[in-house]
Model the fold of this input.
Amino acid sequence: MKYLENAIKFIAKHFIIAIPLFISTAITALIGGTVSGGFTNKLFEILPQMKGGVNYLSDPASITRFFASAAAVTGAGFLGFILTLIVTPATYGMVNKALNEDKSDLNEFVPQLKDNFVKYILYWVGNIVVWVILGIAAFLIVLLLALISKIAPWLGIFFGVLIALAAIVVVVLIAINLVLWFPAMVIDNMDVIAALKRSYTLVKKNFWMILGINLLVGIVASLASLILGILAGIPLLGPIILSVIPTASTFIIIVFHMMYYKCENNQPSAT
Done:
């Protein structure tokens, strides 16, 4: 727990560098909540008509509003994606600088973005490759399971349950073993493959501790969001206030991973 305690102390001292992350989260929540609410309303207008056999296409204005809402939802999602591409690498860079020099401020945002943007893109593409490979493997297993089910239905159900449980375990194992991937690229300027290997090497030393802290932060954040969910109904102000929770949890995890990497990476290897 020392890493979590140190991360919280770090955040109390350097909370200023979490502001871009908060702004990004708040903008995404504010715009996303507004447009998705409008899209949901339009969807609920159309579905009863379709169920009742009414040709909703006969009302051009209605279908135009529906597609406009759908486009707005897509646009909000794209905006959130762009903000993530900008804010995340800069935040990791500012945290790294603060850990190295015990000082960092928002003036470092642009320089750190320049230093880490390409790294983040490579890391992002690398993640896609890893999960696509995993998805292909899962697809092949599902095909095999479907074949088994045709031959022996009860055996197919048995293997289906086992495979579902195994899939959960595999996803958790892979996700946790990748948490130090980007920190390695930022801190040690490693390439994608070398950073991936380093992440696996360092995570396996304290896998359960890392998993536990990630789960703890996630559970606390979820409970806090649930408790404060009543504020979501407040126009404009509600989503902004609620954005504090995911911002805090994300920032804690970033700092925790960076601290853990810097500490464990400097430990002498066992021989």
User: Anything to note?
Assistant: The chain has a mean pLDDT of 82. Residues 206 and 264 are 10 Å apart (CA to CA). The chain has ten helices and no strands. The radius of gyration is 23 Å.
